[in-house]
Amino acid sequence: MFNLFLILHITAGFSALLTFWLPLVLKKGGNWHIRISWFFVVMMGIVSITATGMAFIRIFIQPDTSPERFSFSIFLLFISVLSASTAYYGLRVLRFKRKSDRHRHLGDLAFSSLLFLAGLSCSIYGFSSGNTLISFFPFLGIFLGLGQLAYWLRPMPVRNSWLLEHIQGMIACSISTVTAFTVFGAPRLLGGGFRSFYLWILPTIVLVPFIFYFSRKYRITK
């Protein structure tokens, strides 16, 4: 079962990695933008499910006492939550373009809360275990989770806030894809390790500016 999850995870992960950038450059709302975006979301759904499955097998079914392996499983769980919740959020804000001042849908609030708690828990584990890498990267989940909750529970600050949040959600989902590859995939293909702090933060440094760029480009005030 673990090997099956691993094959599906790698296949879907590479597919998402090859296509995540296309919706950024294609015409927003166009047919190709929509089709490729849905393909990306489906691939990230598979990535999230398989990552959760592999982590649970390693932690609960076939426990691996190696500290490095256990840390990897914890990170895998966090990545699965980050991938799923940001993709889900990116879709749901499109569904509720004209939300009320306070959006009380239980599923939406639960996903955002889960992202916040997953980031907080992973970071606490990182600090308690002395793992610097896992200590700081989950801050992304903490900030995104709080930001999502703030959007759902407050009035929209600008007329097209839903579009800005959609872009943020999808780029954040892309960050999880690229981070997982640069930290675990690329070093293994090149025969190296995955301990470098710079590898963990590089995708965030590269992709976060796109959030600010598109937010400024498409922002429409009331």
Automatic annotation (TrEMBL):
Name this polypeptide is given: Membrane protein
Segments crossing the lipid bilayer: 6-26, 38-61, 73-94, 106-127, 133-153, 165-185, 197-215
What's in the keyword line of the UniProt record? Membrane, Transmembrane, Transmembrane helix
The protein's superkingdom reads Bacteria
Keyword Transmembrane belongs to the record:
yes
- Does the keyword field hold tRNA processing? no
